[in-house]
Amino acid sequence: IRGVSMPGISITHWTWLKRPDAKIENGLIIEGTDQPEPYHPGEDITGLLNAVQGIYDEQSALEFVNHWGLLGLLYNAPASNDLRSQINGAFTFTYAARKKDNPGINKDVVMQEVIQFFNPNGGFCLTPKGDSLSSTINFAQWVRYIAEVKRLLTLYQDDKIAAAYETKEWLNNLPPQWYKKIVVADINILKEQYGPAYDEPSFFEYVLDIALGNAREIISSRLQRGVWIGLYRSPFGNHPQGYPVLNFDGLFRFIAYVLLVHGVASPKKCADPKCGRLFFPAKADQKYCPPPPGVRRSRCENRHGQWLRRHGIKNKKGEMVNAKSKKG
């Protein structure tokens, strides 16, 4: 009997919604009233990863949502289930306590009071209409830190000593609240776990591996349950019935997946000294942050090229750096 081959699972066919008219109200990034624009995030993974790393404040967060959509942090399945569990637990406790003094108390009245406590806006709709601005900015920071972990692990393949030095510096400068989220365990405990064969370069690579493993909990934990496989019920395009597609409960989960699982190109540091931020290259020889949407040339590349020309620095061929860009 000849075996039947299973088609590869696709992430490019998963659909999300752009929110070009989103706005910020009371610390929430909320959907606008216009029709959202469906698109496939998997068609521009590097663009998406670079864009989310660019979220630092209200303006950059709103620009991201306009172009890529809400992250979906507050209405993903685990968060909704957790909220409902809290409400059910609070209702059970409150109803039992009230019933002792008033055996005829109405269950619906107690439930309304509990819901009002958890959802001051009233009503039974417990799904937020948008993402918290602070949660959006925090998620972007998490992406930047995990990107740095990946960059350092890649550096270990080329220069172990330099990688260990940079990793030690990075850990020393990591804010305590983020150290607890990313590395979790105290550094001295990790040294004890590493054992007597301690040497600094290998140890710090071990710490980075732990950090990456901790980050993968957002995908692999049974409590998350935010990624599942969907199958085409009928042929669609060039794909047959039963074609498997990965689905995600939010854009944030998709970003975490492509960052931690999908095998996207390792991030680089921008070659412009005035920038130095991490970016995900669209091609192997890319040295600078990508240009903003609608712009052809990287601003970092232009700025660095101007500096190099002012100082008379030439490339290996003896040509003035970025000489072609002198026009205009």
Care to describe what's here?
The protein has 328 residues and is mainly alpha-helical. The protein is 47% helix and 9% strand. The protein is built from 12 helices and 9 strands. The strands form 4 sheets. Strands 2-3-5 form a 3-stranded antiparallel sheet. A two-stranded antiparallel ribbon has the order 1-4. Strands 6-7 form a two-stranded antiparallel ribbon. A hairpin with an 8-residue loop joins strand 8 and strand 9. The chain is globular, with a radius of gyration of 25 Å. It starts with 15 loop residues before the first strand and ends in an 18-residue tail after the last helix. 24% of the residues are buried.
